[in-house]
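To assess whether ligand presence alters the predicted conformation, the chain was also submitted together with MTE. Input:
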Amino acid sequence: MLIRPATEIPSSEITDERVYVRRREFLQACGLAAVGLAASPIAVNAQAAARPRKLENVARGPFGTTEALTPYENVATYNNFYEFGTDKSSPAMTAGSLKTRPWTVKVDGECDRPADYDIDDFIKPHTLEERVYRMRCVEGWSMVIPWVGIPLGDVLKRFEPTSRAKFVEFTTLRDTRQMPGQRSSVLDWPYVEGLRLDEAMHPLTILAVGLYGAVLPNQNGAPLRLVVPWKYGFKGIKSIVRIRFVDRQPVGAWERQSSSEYGFYSNVNPQVDHPRWSQASERRLGEFFKRKTLMFNGYGDQVAGMYAGMDLRKNF
Ligand code: MTE
């Protein structure tokens, strides 16, 4: 994430006509008929075989954009996941070493029902929903992704946070054998992120277990990752093993690494430049022309009220 500004991303990495064709095949394989495009059955089978398992019983979520989806191949091969290397292509090639079952999620801190959960028991009480969200990365690229997940607020309520719980802290697995990037000190491991309790409870915030109708590819944060669509992508912590209710504002991995560049709030704000690049525009992966970045990534109607009265230049 600190390596290259978006202006230096070669177009060969973001624009490839073939991905559109393969996307049609994948959508067909996933049964996402809404896109309404046809593909040859032979190609569909070849694609389906290479994909993660399709998820059953996915309901249409209450929120989401109808904008064109970013091709699956871009979503699953252009990643930030420093536990698997610092360049965008490494995670897709190396994250196969991550074992996502069995997987335990620890819930603790300021709550009345702390527990260690097997990932499947953790998810079971909830209905899986598809939510098509715009995602904006701090480096200047953006995507539209059909996530499959569960509302974080519904999950958190199960653990009965106490009145002392003001924030929620999330932690990624730490295991240098499965995550070779952790042998480097590029970040202070394990990766940590945090949200204010009201942000965590907001109905737009989800824990994702899949995308494009199928199980999350490891490189996208399997088996469980955070998705907060009005914040920069780096808040979307991957491969979560711990959720902790806390009374103090957590320090996220990027904030710890460079607090002048990455603040706690990390709301998408085109008026506040990152110290090393402008935040005013973005390039959606798969598109050629840049577009203007929207305040709160276009989710202002739903989320701006949470920041009323705050100086968003200081609380960046
Ligand atoms: N989570 C962990 N554990 N490690 C990471 O390096 N990178 C973050 C975020 N979550 C990261 C992480 C950043 S910088 C971004 S932009 C998003 O993941 C990228 O998510 P994607 O690869 O699914 O697009």
